[in-house]
Structure prediction request, 225 residues.
Amino acid sequence: SQQGEEDPQALSIQEGENATMNCSYKTSINNLQWYRQNSGRGLVHLILIRSNEREKHSGRLRVTLDTSKKSSSLLITASRAADTASYFCATPTGANSKLTFGKGITLSVRP
Amino acid sequence: SAVISQKPSRDICQRGTSLTIQCQVDSQVTMMFWYRQQPGQSLTLIATANQGSEATYESGFVIDKFPISRPNLTFSTLTVSNMSPEDSSIYLCSVAREQDQPQHFGDGTRLSIL
Prediction:
């Protein structure tokens, strides 16, 4: 079963706007990770936030984590057409940190 | 981060045949994983490839259908056996150096079965 559930499932915005994507999960976690996938290619790791962190930044990306609500958000500021992709949250489970992925969010940024 | 080469990048296969996908990493890594991504879907873990021992399969995946080899710390193969149209997916390998570290993915193998 899916550990992470993102919403919305699809998001369409204008270039320059901010995009906010949310992820909820079910069980306790050590960390939560966000990945991007361009057009059916491999996934690119964006950011990892640990359970004792509340917020993390990387360039135009800001990730928050609320362990009490079992939720995380990914904010992309000043979006660009190149940000058009699918975004997944993922949480490690089990002894070998295998990842369980959410269903993903399709982001379209219109030029 | 590790550089991962996955081959082939895509293939079109006949029903009932088998295909072996290779995953080569430019450095030694402890953990390697194989995922399947069906059209329009998220990623599902097939198995963890263990160096020197049998792979650990997830529920719904069996060794006879998806045999995996991992002869060393930089290389693994996934075979999709006796393929049917339902096996049409993207297959991805990923690696992680340590527990609770990000995984790095190959570009995937896009497989279509006729």
The radius of gyration of chain B is 13 Å. Chain B touches chain A at residues 1, 4, 6, 31, 33, 41-45, 48, 56, 58, 90, 92, 94, 96, 99-108, 110 (CB under 8 Å). Residues 47 and 57 of chain B are 4 Å apart (CA to CA). Chain B has a mean pLDDT of 94.
